[in-house]
């Protein structure tokens, strides 16, 4: 470990906490690819696993291709925060897509949380799901005003979101760093590794033919409507294809690559804390994230750790450097954690889109769900399931109604302009940071 990192990192492991604490994936010994399949699913994360399980249960022959190993991508590296909602609020969704679609989109994101929360009951997947709510924390007075207004707007929709003003925030979180928070009480947290293993088990039990270390390299529709899928281990012909590649999408799906920006997100996790300290930091076990562009997200885990994540940098950087940045950020919010050993640090890739919305749709017989924009633990298992139902003749999810814009810059795989976007966001965060400092000084906060 580099000497640049503080002593708290003395025994740290560069491994996702979840991968270190999840049961083994179902074995998928290498075997020959078949010549044909009803459906080929590309990507063995929570999206592809949910889709393939559903398709196999409906009687389709399903081949699942995973370039690495099952769950290798973001699915076992996330914060495990099971959240409803999108970047845009209800009113903005209605303005952009029309009232019916706007409402249907928000309802879909709420249904997605229910879907994941019910997996223990419906599928017997035990993944430490707790519905203790999430709190979006206002970094500036301006953000607080916006969140409070949004609470009022949502009140007319389902009445569940509640504004927690600054003077009551200590009942929610052990810090005075924020100007209030918007509480979504029905959201929650999960062990994403256990969730992914559970979905993989159900997919294998349903008869999905899993091929790990098998990368799709090209996907070509044929004249007869079927699709040729070329892989690193030979080609096969599918009736339909489903792409669940999210932030790890590659040249196999060039049309998605022109619409999706892979951005790294980073996380550190402490050792299990003294229960009294954990209760001081997070008295109600909520999921937290804040309103900065370079946002932080954090939570207590079921085994009592503090997990703290964020974007850290849009410049290419090392996980180690990002871990140091996050550690400093965590101590600014929770100085109580000074001296507490950090056990794990890691990173993963998230797919961002130009309109900051996730997307699901089809082009001929090639279907996809991608662009989670950092919020996919609830939505993407749901979307995988719903997309599979659509592929089997059921209704399309509401997300399939909205257009999927190109990234408006010449871009093939390497997003050269991302550091510039990062500089702009950092500038905006610095500007609101200065306003915040002036404000705190004048109010003695
Ligand atoms: C650090 C981090 C923190 C996050 N925190 C949260 C959170 O707290 N809450 C939340 O809602 N969301 C969070 N997310 C987002 C969430 O993890 C994702 O939305 C979700 O896991 C997406 O699942 P997926 O199956 O679509 O993609 P992934 O799990 O990324 O899986 C995609 C798979 O596709 C495979 N693949 C790609 N191309 C090919 C190919 N050509 N051939 C074969 N295989 C291929 C990859 O190897 C990969 O395994 C976080 C993400 C990261 C990285």
Describe the structure.
The chain has 445 residues and is α/β, with parallel strands linked by helices. It has one domain (7-133, 186-401): FAD/NAD(P)-binding domain (3-Layer(bba) Sandwich), CATH 3.50.50. It is 32% helix and 22% strand. Strands 1, 2, 8, 9, 10, 11, 17 and 18 form an 8-stranded mixed sheet that branches. Strands 5-6-4-13-14-15-12-16 form an 8-stranded mixed sheet, sandwiched between helices. Strands 3-7 form a two-stranded antiparallel sheet. Strand 9 (216-221) and strand 10 (227-231) form a beta hairpin. Helix 2 (46-57) packs parallel to helix 7. The longest helix is centred in the C-terminal third of the chain and has 26 residues, at 418-443. It is globular and about 70 Å long. The chain starts with 16 loop residues before the first helix and ends with a helix. The model has no long low-confidence stretch (mean pLDDT 93). Bound molecules: flavin-adenine dinucleotide. Residues 42-48, 65-68, 72-75, 77-81, 83, 215-216, 244-250, 252, 265, 267, 297, 309, 348-350, 372, 374-378, 380 line the site of flavin-adenine dinucleotide. Flavin-adenine dinucleotide binds at residues 42-48, 65-68, 72-75, 77-81, 83, 215-216, 244-250, 252, 265, 267, 297, 309, 348-350, 372, 374-378, 380.
């Amino acid at each position: 470990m580099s000497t640049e990192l503080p002593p708290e990192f003395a025994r740290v492991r560069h491994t996702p906490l979840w991968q270190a604490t999840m049961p083994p994936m179902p074995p998928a010994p290498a075997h020959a690819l078949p010549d044909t399949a009803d459906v080929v699913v590309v990507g063995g994360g929570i999206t592809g696993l949910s889709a393939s399980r559903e398709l196999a249960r409906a009687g389709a022959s399903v081949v699942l291709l995973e370039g690495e190993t099952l769950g290798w991508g973001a699915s076992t590296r996330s914060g495990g925060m099971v959240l409803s909602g999108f970047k845009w609020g209800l009113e903005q969704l209605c303005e952009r897509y029309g009232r019916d679609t706007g409402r249907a989109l928000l309802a879909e994101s709420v249904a997605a949380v229910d879907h994941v929360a019910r997996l223990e009951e419906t599928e017997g997947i035990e993944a430490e799901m707790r519905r203790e709510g999430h709190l979006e924390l206002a970094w500036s007075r301006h953000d607080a005003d916006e969140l409070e207004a949004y609470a009022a707007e949502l009140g007319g929709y389902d009445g569940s979101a509640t504004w927690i003003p600054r003077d009551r925030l200590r009942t929610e979180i052990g810090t005075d760093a924020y100007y209030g928070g918007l509480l979504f009480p029905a959201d929650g947290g999960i062990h994403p590794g256990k969730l992914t293993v559970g979905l993989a088990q159900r997919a294998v039990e349903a008869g999905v033919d899993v091929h790990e270390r098998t990368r799709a390299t090209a996907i070509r529709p044929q004249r007869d409507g079927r699709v040729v899928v070329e892989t690193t281990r030979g080609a096969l012909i599918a009736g339909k294809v489903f792409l669940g590649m999210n932030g790890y999408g590659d040249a196999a799906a060039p049309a998605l690559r022109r619409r999706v920006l892979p951005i790294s997100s980073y996380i550190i996790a402490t050792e299990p804390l003294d229960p009294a300290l954990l209760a001081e930091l997070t008295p109600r076990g909520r999921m937290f994230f804040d309103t900065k562009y370079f946002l932080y997200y954090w939570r207590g885990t079921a085994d009592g750790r503090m997990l703290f994540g964020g974007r850290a940098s849009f410049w290419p950087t090392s996980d180690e450097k990002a871990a140091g940045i996050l550690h400093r950020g965590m101590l600014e919010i929770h100085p109580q954690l000074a001296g507490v050993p950090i056990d794990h640090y890691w990173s993963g890739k998230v797919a961002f889109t130009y309109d900051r919305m996730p997307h699901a749709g089809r082009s001929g017989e090639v279907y996809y769900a991608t662009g989670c924009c950092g919020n996919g633990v609830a939505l993407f298992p749901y979307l995988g399931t719903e997309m599979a139902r659509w592929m089997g003749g059921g209704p399309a999810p509401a997300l399939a109604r909205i257009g999927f814009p190109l990234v408006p810059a010449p871009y093939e795989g390497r997003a050269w302009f991302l550091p510039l976007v990062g500089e702009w966001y950092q500038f905006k965060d610095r500007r609101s940071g200065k306003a915040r400092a002036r404000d705190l000084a004048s109010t003695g906060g």
